[in-house]
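Subject: mismatched residue count in predicted assembly?

I count 438 residues in my input, but I want to confirm that the predicted structure covers every chain. Input:
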Amino acid sequence: MKHTHAEENYLKAIYMLSEGEERLVSTTAMAELLRTRAASITDMMQKLHHKGLVVYRKYQGVTLTETGKQSAIKILRKHLLWEVFLVEKLKFGWNEIHEIAEQLEHIDSDILIDRLDHFLGNPYCNPHGIVIPNADGKIVTKPRLLMTDVAEGTSGIISAIKDDSVAFLQYLGKRNIYLGAKMTVIEKIKFDESMDVTIDNQYKINISRKITDNILITL
Amino acid sequence: MKHTHAEENYLKAIYMLSEGEERLVSTTAMAELLRTRAASITDMMQKLHHKGLVVYRKYQGVTLTETGKQSAIKILRKHLLWEVFLVEKLKFGWNEIHEIAEQLEHIDSDILIDRLDHFLGNPYCNPHGIVIPNADGKIVTKPRLLMTDVAEGTSGIISAIKDDSVAFLQYLGKRNIYLGAKMTVIEKIKFDESMDVTIDNQYKINISRKITDNILITL
DNA sequence: ATAATTTTTTAGACAAACCTAAAAATTAAT
DNA sequence: ATTAATTTTTAGGTTTGTCTAAAAAATTAT
Ligand SMILES: [Mn+2]
Ligand SMILES: [Mn+2]
Ligand SMILES: [Mn+2]
Ligand SMILES: [Mn+2]
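Triage response: the counts match. Full output below for your records.
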């Protein structure tokens, strides 16, 4: 099934607001997120209900059907992959990407997304650490560890950064630390709580407690 | 000025059909290119005329104003850059890219296009050899030479390929010949009209007359 | 339990893009 | 120069997505 630009935004909004669960989503919540009026939401919910993409009951709220959920996930997947592209390849800052991805997510081509995914090295999550659904619409969440808590000798893939200030991002850029990089703990220094790590088995650097507190890895 | 998705397609179509000149474009020509009905074209031409983007006179045809032309060029630039991206980075075949670029050209972000351009190495033309307008909307055409006619010792940048059959593209791929590569003529062999060339000053290969007849370079 | 407030839906309107069918203008043929 | 054929425009209509204002339902407060 193919959807219009607007339908896609609504489906994704319901998915985001219900956080993947069965939770009922209210008209006002959607109106605020999508910056439209409540009346517009009601109109669209009735339309999506007729199309079998949502279950909508007057005054009660709305939930996605399985079909609707799969559509929403596909759009989210595209959104997140484009965000990775913008940051990793075009060197955008994390705060500049959402608006552009909001447009790019509507490009209609399955093969394009397959190739983009592959080109980006099948990333696990977007720059904000949101897990990217795979091509089958499954969301495989791997447990994440705060770098501070990782034992000596352990390595993992950097999969999220908690602080997304420009200053921190610049620090990471300078040290060649990026999402998807392999980080290995060589030695933990008790005295100042810093640690020596390698990036992609190459550079060995020392990172302070302030840094390790803001990096999450998946094993 | 920002335009709707549809307006952009019409502006680009007028530009393509008038080939950058002042030539009047007919309603039917546009209807065919855009796969719509003549009546829809008339509607839109009246609208674009009111907006000052085209000069339209009943039954006479339409031309772009300077403003309209600049808009058209910007859209074309985006279209062509995305096509380069699809071929060079995502490894699409030349025949698969136009439809996707037709969508991507409407993404609205100046900085995105600047960065994409830079990421792609400021390409001179798209995979079909169409020159990409620069950021100021200027189209700088460099003279192009058929590889067959290039003298020994000369080198240039591959800027167009005449035959875009799958077979030829596969041949080029296998030999690491790609758009933007530097090709240098080492020796021209009179006997079979083939020539020895280097690609990016690295590989030295022999290419036959059939190949040199289909490659264009800029000095 | 009533009243006041908030949320949600309906009713009615509008702009953007398209369409078909009919009318008008242009161009080509006799 | 008429007539015939083609092109282009107009008139009227549809779908999509939005809006405002008013009505209805649900929620909260007294
Ligand atoms: Mn986002
Ligand atoms: Mn969007
Ligand atoms: Mn194209
Ligand atoms: Mn287009």
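Residues B 79, 83, 98, 101 surround manganese (II) ion (ligand 3) (CB under 6 Å). Marking this ticket as 'not a bug'.
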